[in-house]
Specification:
Two copies of one chain form a homodimer.
Chain A (H helix, E strand, L loop, with lengths): L7 H19 L4 E2 L1 H8 L3 H9 L11 E2 H11 L6 E6 L3 H7 L2 H5 L2 E8 L8 E2 L2 E5 L3 H7 L4 E4 L3 H13 L4 E4 L12 E4 L2 H14 L1
Parallel strand pairs in A: 3-4, 3-7, 4-6, 7-8, 8-9
Antiparallel strand pairs in A: 1-2, 5-6
C-alpha cells in the first residue's frame, strides 16, 4: 500500500505501538504475538496484522514480531531518523512545561526558543531556552529552518500566531490553545484538546 | 444497545462531537446532516448514524440532527449534568496550568486543591488554589468526596500517588506523568501521552 494511502486511524495508532514497543524493549522482551500486542492496544490480532501490513511484511506466522525490529521500523516510519527543530509561542505554564519535557528531547524533538509578548518574561531564560519577543519571530524563522511550531498562547492569539508560523515556512503546528485553527494545504496541524480526557472520565463515572 | 456495551471507540469520539456541536450552537447553526458532521469528524455519514444510534434514536431521515438537542443529549451521556470535584497532585508547570484552565471550569470540572512535596510551594496559593503538603492528601480525601485525581508529578512519584488516590476512594484518575499506571477494577484511568502528537506530526513531515 503506498504510504499516502495509509488510513488516518492507523497513523494515529502508530505512536501507541511505538510507546509500547519501547517499554517492551526496555524490559528485554524479544518477541510478541499479534494477539498480545492486540490485547494491549485494545484491538484484535487480525486488526494488528492489518495495521502493520500497511507498511509491508513483518512478522512470521507462528513466531510473531521481533520487538526491537518492529520498534525500529515503526520509528523509521514515524520519521524518528532525524532531529526536529521546534519553537514555542507562549511562555506561560504550558509553554514552560513543554520546553522542559525530557521525553521530547530523548526522541530528538528539540525546542530551541520561546516567544512571548509579556515584558515580565521576555529576555529571561526558561530552563535552557531564551524568551524572545513575539516581534522577533518572523526574523527568527527566516534565519532558522524550524520544523514544528508549538502554540501555547491564549485562544485569541492562536490564529494570528499560526499564520506567522505558516508564513515563516513552518510545516507542522502543534496547538494547545482551545480553538480550531486553519492551516493551508501542506501544513500539518495537531490540536490537543485537554478536556476530552475529562469528558471520557465523567462518561465512565456516569455510566459505570 | 445497553450503555455498558457502547464500543470504546465511540466513547472516545463523544468529546469531539460535543466540542464541535458546542461551536455550531455558538454560531447559531440549527441543524446538521450526518454527512456534514461526518466531514468534520473524519467519518462517513453512516458511521455517524451508527455512533449516535448507540444512544437511542435521534435525528430524522432527510432532516439531520437538531444541533442543540444533540449537543444537550451528548452532554447528558457524558455526565455533564453535575459538577465534578478534582484535586491535582504536583504543583509544577503542568499542574499549575491545569488548575487555571477556564474551559474545565466552564463544564463544572472544579479543581479545589493542589498537593506537592516541595517546601518552596507548599503553603502558597496558585491562582485561587491552596497548595497542601502531600502528607495531607489522605486526610483531605477522607473528608472530601473527590471525583477526579489529576497526577502531574514526576514519573517516579506517579504510581504511589495513584495508589493514595485509589485508597482515598477517588474513582477517576487523569495521569500526565509519562508512565503506565495500574488501577484496580472500578477505577477509570486516562493517561495523556503528549509526545504522541509530535510523532503524528513527524510522520506527516516524513511521509508527505
Amino acid at each position: 500500500m503506498p504510504r499516502d494511502k495509509v488510513p488516518n486511524a492507523v497513523v494515529q495508532r502508530l505512536p501507541g505501538y511505538y510507546r509500547y514497543l519501547t517499554i517492551l524493549e526496555e524490559i528485554g522482551l524479544v518477541r510478541i504475538s499479534s494477539q498480545q500486542l492486540g490485547e494491549r492496544m485494545g484491538l484484535t490480532a487480525s486488526q494488528i496484522r492489518q495495521d502493520i501490513n500497511c507498511f509491508g511484511g513483518f512478522g512470521q506466522q507462528g513466531y510473531g514480531y521481533n520487538v526491537s525490529e518492529l520498534r525500529a521500523r515503526i520509528g523509521e516510519i514515524l520519521g524518528l531518523t532525524r532531529a526536529y527543530r521546534m519553537v514555542i509561542i507562549g511562555a506561560g505554564n504550558i509553554g514552560q512545561a513543554i520546553s522542559n519535557y525530557q521525553s521530547f528531547r530523548d526522541m530528538r524533538f528539540e525546542a530551541e526558543a520561546l516567544f512571548d509578548i509579556s515584558e515580565e518574561i521576555v529576555g529571561r531564560k526558561v530552563g535552557d531556552l531564551f524568551v524572545f519577543p513575539l516581534d522577533a519571530l518572523a526574523d527568527y524563522l527566516a534565519n532558522n529552518a524550524i520544523d514544528i511550531g508549538i502554540i501555547t498562547t491564549p485562544k485569541s492569539a492562536a490564529q494570528p500566531v499560526c499564520d506567522m508560523l505558516v508564513e515563516g515556512n513552518v510545516k507542522a503546528i502543534w496547538n494547545f490553545a482551545p480553538v480550531d485553527l486553519s492551516v493551508p494545504e501542506g501544513v500539518s496541524l495537531k490540536s490537543v484538546h485537554l478536556s476530552d480526557a475529562l469528558l471520557v472520565l465523567s462518561y465512565h463515572m456516569t455510566n459505570g
